[in-house]
Design brief:
It contains 14 helices and 14 strands. With 401 residues, the chain is an alpha/beta fold. The termini are close together. The relative contact order is 0.11.
């Protein structure tokens, strides 16, 4: 079975085509600037030359047509016809309390995704556009929605409720939802496989740290707690997001700077985090370089970033009543040797010692703690697209489609 995985943004469309029999990626690519002048299409078929195109694409339907044409193209294609695409899996950011697992797209599921738009106004409408485009172009091909929030729905009310009037939870669904769930799920089960352990026997803290970042405490496959909350703004310091913040700061700044709610939201989501603290960049590589050159603000940004990760690891070890493994994934987690070192060197209280040589790794599965460490520390590359393809494959099989 071949599964096409789509990740639709407001003006972009990422895609990968998987052969689920071999679990190989047949092709992948990205369409950018949808709805703008000169859309850019980058197509990378496995074993063939990359192909780049530039043309105007007005909407996601037109973008999907280009993608499908490239997949069956005589030179750049990897399949002979669209009939060889057996299912489509969509990344959908928010499933609220409606979905605790991935779901076959039906009219009811589509309406539920639409209902969740109020909780993810920037993401769910774009995800929905991808589903609509497929429905028009490939009406007989089954589609599956894979939700970023679904894995976290195993949290208890103790973890997901905020201490504000309960009526706001009942009326608006204000609670902790958590995000990056597809990544945390993949990394947890991949870690169990890598360590040769049964998932139900493992307590793991997964650290998805990149430009967007979150940490999740997982006990036997059940999420106990996660750092992102009602929105992806809560928790860790990120590239441009502030993370945890005293809520009284918001009205203080709004009053003193004469900011609207929309302007304040922009400050917190786009102008804070690493870029806000350093005044240099949201990219950790730039922060590390500036800090090494003696820039005080960059050094502060680095220290605040890593300290917040440490705090969550400590808190989640307590929440789990012990931990078997701490796992680093995503852009910074997989690739930043110095950031991992800075964090792991302060985990001595867990009986962890960093293996300096093993830590010199980028984008590979590796244990980076010493053999005598009581808790294992690993680097585990995430693969959200594969997880989406896997869920899609399993759901389509389950429904005998």
């Amino acid at each position: 079975m071949n599964v096409l995985v789509l990740n639709s943004g407001s003006s972009s469309l990422k895609y990968q085509l998987f052969n689920m029999k071999t679990e190989d990626v047949l092709a992948k690519g990205l369409v950018e600037r949808i709805g703008l002048d000169k859309s850019v299409i980058t197509h990378k078929p496995t074993g063939k030359a990359k192909k780049e195109l530039t043309q105007d694409l007005n909407n996601h339907k037109e973008a999907l047509k280009i993608v499908l044409n490239l997949l069956v193209d005589k030179e750049a294609g990897v399949i002979s016809s669209m009939d060889e695409i057996n299912a489509v899996g969509h990344r959908v950011v928010h499933g609220a309390e409606e979905f605790s697992e991935s779901a076959l797209v039906t009219d009811e599921v589509y309406k539920a995704i639409e209902k969740c738009e109020v909780l993810a106004p920037l993401h769910n409408p774009a995800n929905k556009m991808g589903i609509s485009a497929c429905s028009e172009i490939m009406p007989n091909t089954p589609q599956v929605a894979v939700f970023d929030t679904a894995f976290h729905q195993t949290m208890d009310a103790t973890s997901y409720l905020y201490a504000i009037p309960y009526k706001y939870y009942e009326k608006y669904g204000v609670r902790r939802y958590g995000f990056h769930g597809t990544s945390h799920k993949y990394v947890f089960y991949k870690t169990a496989e890598f360590l040769g352990k049964k998932p139900e026997d493992l307590k793991v803290i997964t650290c998805h740290i990149g430009n967007g970042a979150s940490i999740t405490a997982i006990d036997g496959g059940k999420v106990v707690d996660t750092s992102m909350g009602f929105t992806p703004l809560e928790g860790l310091v990120m590239g441009t997001r502030c993370g945890d913040l005293d809520p009284a700061i918001l009205p203080f700044l709004m009053n003193n700077e004469d900011l609207t709610a929309k302007e304040m939201d922009k400050v917190l989501n786009k102008e804070s985090g690493l870029v806000g603290l350093s005044g240099i960049s949201s990219d950790m590589r730039d922060i590390l370089k500036a800090a090494a050159e003696g820039d005080e603000k960059a050094n502060n940004a680095l220290n605040v970033y890593t300290y917040r990760v440490l705090k969550y690891i400590g808190a989640y070890t307590a929440a789990l009543n012990g931990v078997d493994a701490v796992v680093f994934t995503a852009g910074i987690g997989e690739n930043s040797v110095p950031v991992r070192k800075k964090i792991v060197e302060k985990l001595g209280w867990l009986g962890v010692q960093l293996d300096e040589e093993a830590n010199k790794v980028m984008g590979e599965e590796k244990i980076i703690s010493t053999t005598d460490s009581k808790v294992k520390v690993l680097v585990m590359p995430t693969d959200e697209e594969y997880m989406i393809a896997k869920d899609t494959y399993e759901i389509v099989k389950k429904h005998n489609i």
